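Example for tutorial group B:
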């Protein structure tokens, strides 16, 4: 591999890793010598510093991690806040409603109701602070359950879950046990792709 492309590969690995990674791990992935990787990392770190780039290369003992420079932290926080405050898509609102009216519920229950894979949507709702993990249900497989948060109540102007608009009266309440028993009949590998959030 030519030197320029080789350095690009090291950058790509660092960028893709959310956690610090050792030179040894990078060397194994690129099938090369650890010393060569260490030299490349040192060169990249110096290059980023010299060019006053927006990113830097942190050395944490024997591990390395690509990160944004501290001076740009306020801008990054502003962008992340904007992202968190973006309006919810119809798919996200649908998942949120299912969780709010049936909590605590498992991901499988949400997917059974919607008919599509909802793992990514649930995760994004967790990131926005509208939904949180509520422990594991006392059922076969001990599935992880989810519930709404105080942020959810505040966002929608509710003082409590009792303030949720009532559902149609003819719909009876379904126990968590019954929900999970219904879900156990549902094959997750038959789910179509998830809606975009």
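The residue assignment follows.
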């Amino acid at each position: 591999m030519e030197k320029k492309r080789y350095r690009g590969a090291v950058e790509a690995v660092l960028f893709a890793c959310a956690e610090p990674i050792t030179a040894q791990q990078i060397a194994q992935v690129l099938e090369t010598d650890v010393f060569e990787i260490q030299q490349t990392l040192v060169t990249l770190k110096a290059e980023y510093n010299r060019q006053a780039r927006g990113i830097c290369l942190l050395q944490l003992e024997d591990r390395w991690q690509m990160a944004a420079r501290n001076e740009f932290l306020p801008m990054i926080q502003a962008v992340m806040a904007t992202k968190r405050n973006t309006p919810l898509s119809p798919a996200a609102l649908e998942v949120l409603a299912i969780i709010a009216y049936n909590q605590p519920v498992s991901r499988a229950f949400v997917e059974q109701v919607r008919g599509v894979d909802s793992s990514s949507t649930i995760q994004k709702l967790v990131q926005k602070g509208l939904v949180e993990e509520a422990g594991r249900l006392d059922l076969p497989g001990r599935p992880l359950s989810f519930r709404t948060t105080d942020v959810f109540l505040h966002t929608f102007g509710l003082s409590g879950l009792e303030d949720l608009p009532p559902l149609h009266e003819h719909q009876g309440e379904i126990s968590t046990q019954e929900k999970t028993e219904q879900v156990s009949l549902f094959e997750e590998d038959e789910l179509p792709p998830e809606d975009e959030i």
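The CA atoms of residues 93 and 147 lie 14 Å apart. Compare this with the pattern of hydrophobic and polar residues in the output above.
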